[in-house]
Amino acid sequence: MYQPTALTPSKPTPQLSLSQSIGDNWNLSDNHGDNFTLVVFYRGYHCPKCKEQLLEIQENLDAFANVGTKVVAISMDPDDRLQKTKDEWGLDKLKLVNGLTIDVAKQWGLHFSTSKGMTSTGVEELAQFNEPGTFLVRADGTLFASWVQTVPAGRPKAPELAGFIGFVLDKDYPPRGILTAV
Predict the structure, then answer these.
(1) What's CA 125's distance to the chain center, in Å?
(2) What is the reported pTM?
(3) Residue 12 lies inside a defined structural domain of this protein
(4) CB 47 within 8 A of CB 82
(5) How would you write the pLDDT of the chain (182 residues) with one tens digit per residue?
(6) CA 137 to CA 180: how far, in whole Å?
(7) Residue 180 and residue 182: Cα distance in Å, rounded?
(8) What is the CATH number of the domain that holds 125?
(9) CA 46 to chain centre
(10) Which domain, by its residues, includes 27?
């Protein structure tokens, strides 16, 4: 039985190297921003909340770039659903990657759900898929902050995240949540 375990800020994140047939293979260690990489795990093409979130992130890519942060959105979707996500949602600037496996998602402490059938948008859910998770990873590969969810609603907003990153850089704000001996 799988029990999600949270990653610890200031510690290295798990390896994240995904093979995809749409585009090149993608590896976190080769694609970090000057300061951070924002790794957004989303539920998939079937999820209207994911569409909302990813469109908002795309609209704020310049704000993330201004604080030295690259952004990538990752799902378990197969290639055809990834292509539909790009085309139908109009995500022409945001880096989308698929090829996420259950094993890799577990290493990141993500939660999982099973299909409940057709969504409100008329798209069938995958048989199994990850729930959302957002991770702010330093350029050295250590975790700075994370937001892991069990439901599709209530995700961090892109403008607030970009503003937070600016605050962190401006104030040399440390990672929080590192106390493990409680």
Answers:
(1) 19
(2) 0.95
(3) no
(4) no
(5) 888 888 999 999 999 999 776 777 899 999 999 999 999 999 999 999 999 999 999 999 999 999 999 999 999 999 999 999 999 999 999 999 999 999 999 999 999 999 999 988 899 999 999 999 999 999 999 999 999 999 999 999 999 999 999 999 999 999 999 887 77
(6) 19
(7) 6
(8) 3.40.30.10
(9) 16
(10) 17-171
